Amino acid sequence: MLNLGKAVEIQNRLRTRVILQPPDAPVNLIGACDVSFKSHYGVAVCATFNLHDLMLVETSHHIMPTHIPYVPGLLSFRELPFIIRALLKLQRMPNLLLVDGHGIAHPRRFGLASHVGVVLNISTIGCAKSCLIGEYKPPHLTRGAYSWLYDDGEKIGLVIRTATNVNPIFVSPGHRIDFTTAYKFILRTTKHRIPEPLRYVDIASRNIATKSI
DNA sequence: GCGACAG
DNA sequence: ATCTTGTCGC
């Protein structure tokens, strides 16, 4: 199912390819992806939106069985196969992809968002609902407030209060993006706690999982 | 040995 | 992630 040693080896090899620089092309189409499970089956949903008005442009999904378990720190080996297949079904690849999970805020600085970005060579941002590794000070309670996430004295992410008096989310660069640009896009696409593109794919994948599987 | 641990 | 009911608050 999953060779832990090999998996870690792959992460350490691919982590050297991560680029923490702003996208080199303007972002007009922003996407998001998420995977829901039911028994040993999973369904990945991808959706793209116009960054300008956040209107839905296109969606795609892929269903298949899985034999890989969830192991903290190795989430990408379970979800990447689903996400890649769903993404390749899109007519147009987004300029930037929001991923439900961490980017470099990871023990080996190579979370799901980074893995997806490096494999497809696209800009990605990791957006998680809870912390995997690192230390931080709770950000102020108003929307837009943030604090840095550190690990070993290294800046690895942002803890952002995307809505007033609501738990913050953990944002970190996945690939081909920097902290500042990531913060900008996350706040710009968020009305509630979770960015709109991610809310959409989360609900969509859950619906398909319970109805079509 | 004990606690922590994305989804 | 998933299993689960009602309930409080913006």
UniProtKB/TrEMBL annotation:
GO terms for molecular function: deoxyribonuclease V activity; magnesium ion binding; RNA endonuclease activity producing 5'-phosphomonoesters, hydrolytic mechanism; single-stranded RNA binding. It catalyses: Endonucleolytic cleavage at apurinic or apyrimidinic sites to products with a 5'-phosphate. Its main location: cytoplasm. GO terms for biological process: DNA repair. The keyword NAD does not apply. Transmembrane segments: none annotated. Its EC number is 3.1.21.7. Mg(2+) binds at D34, D100. The keyword Nuclease applies. Signal peptide: none annotated. One of its GO terms (cellular component) is cytoplasm. Keywords: Cytoplasm, DNA damage, DNA repair, Endonuclease, Hydrolase, Magnesium, Metal-binding, Nuclease. Its cofactor is Mg(2+). The record marks Y70 as: Interaction with target DNA. Pfam families: Endonuclease_5. Belongs to the endonuclease V family. This is Endonuclease V. It comes from candidate division WOR-3 bacterium 4484_18.
